[in-house]
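Quick question, first post here. What does this chain look like in 3D?
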Amino acid sequence: MRTSEVLSLTIRDVDLPGAVLTIRDSKFFKTRLVPIGPKTAQVLAEYASRRKTSSRYPVTPFFVVELRRTARLVSAASPANHMLCHGSEEMKK
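> Answer (accepted):
Ran it through. Tokens below.
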């Protein structure tokens, strides 16, 4: 996934039980579904839980709130962001 696509994900675009991400208006203004593996879904669920219970995150419809203003560093923000940008080993097998 492109960093801009990760930063554009909203909470409604992340279907953890279905293990699918909806990428809206990506390159060439298309929408696509991106399947995620169980390990990625687990990391994203942990991130979502942390995000929901922490007061340091602003109220926003965006799923990724860490380092939104510094897009080039999004992979370093959390394991969840890194897995989204670069994929997990399970998806490469």
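Residues 3-92 form one domain.
The radius of gyration is 12 Å.
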